[in-house]
Amino acid sequence: MRQNLSLNGTVSIYDIGPAAGKPPDLISQPDGIVNFEDLMVFCLMWKWNKKTQNLKLKTQNLSLWMEEEGDWVVVKYRGLADALGGRYILKFDQGVEAEKVESGLKAFVWERIDNNLILEFGLIDAEDSGEVCRIKIKNGIKIQGEGEIRDSENKKILVENYELSLKTISLKEAKCYPNPSRTGEVRFFDVPSDTSIQIYNIAGELIFSDERFNSRTWPTKNIASGTYIYILTSGKDKKTGKIAVVK
C-alpha cells in the first residue's frame, strides 16, 4: 500500500529521478520507479523555484526521532529548516496496522511493506522544528527507526537510528470513573486503542455499544439509576465489570 498526500506514485509523469546536475539544469534520468529519489528531485526544483536553494541549513542540534504520545507514535525533527527532505523507516517487531497517518509536511508519501512503514518527506522550509507525521497504531510493540536527511543539494547529511518500545496496555489495567456515576458520564482509562464496549442492564438488554470507543466515555445523563454490566473487548482479551448509576 502506498499513500501519497502530494504526489501520485502510480502516475509515470512523476518518474523524474534520479537526476544529474544542479537546478535549474537538472538532467532527469527516469528509472521506471516512482520512489524517494523522485520526491527529492521534485523538492530540488521546488526550492529553486522558491529562491531558497542558497539558504544555509541550520544544523545546530540536528536530529530526527520518534516519541510515544498516547495512542500515537510521532516522528519529529529539530534544526532542519531549509533541508530538502528525507525518509524514515519504522521497523516493527510484528505485523502492524497503521490506523491513521497524519502528515505535518507539505510533500509526504508513506507505504507499508511487510512489517516496515516507510515515510518519505520533503520541503522543510518553514520552521526549525516540528512533526514529520504521527501514526496511530496498536500498543505493546517494539519499533526501530532509521532516518536520513538530505540538504538543499540533495546530499545526505544525517543518518539516525532510534528504538522505541510502546507501553503494553491490557484490559487488566482498565478503570472506570466515577463509579457510582452521579455526574452524567463514566470515563474509562488505560484501555488499548482497539477497545470496544457493550453495556447491559440487569435484565441482559444491550443499552450501549461502541465498536471503536474513541471517546472512552459512556454518557449516563439519560440513564436510570441502577446497576449495569460493562464488557470491554480488545482482540481476544475481555474484561467485565459493574457500574452503578445514581441520580
Question: Can you describe this structure?
Answer:
The model is unreliable at 1-9 (pLDDT under 50). This protein has one helix at 36-49; strands at residues 2-4, 19-20, 27-28, 63-69, 72-78, 83-92, 100-103, 107-113, 116-124, 129-136, 142-150, 156-165, 175-177, 185-189, 196-200, 206-210, 217-219, 226-234, 237-245. Strand 2 and strand 3 (27-28) form a beta hairpin. The longest helix is centred in the first third of the chain and has 14 residues, at 36-49. It is 6% helix and 47% strand. It starts with a strand and ends with a strand. The protein has one helix and 19 strands. The strands form five sheets. The protein has a six-stranded antiparallel sheet, with helices on one face. The chain has a four-stranded antiparallel sheet with strand order 4-5-10-7, with no helix packed on it. With 247 residues, the chain is mostly beta strands. The protein has two domains: 2-165, Immunoglobulin-like (Sandwich), CATH 2.60.40; 171-245, Immunoglobulin-like, CATH 2.60.40.3080.
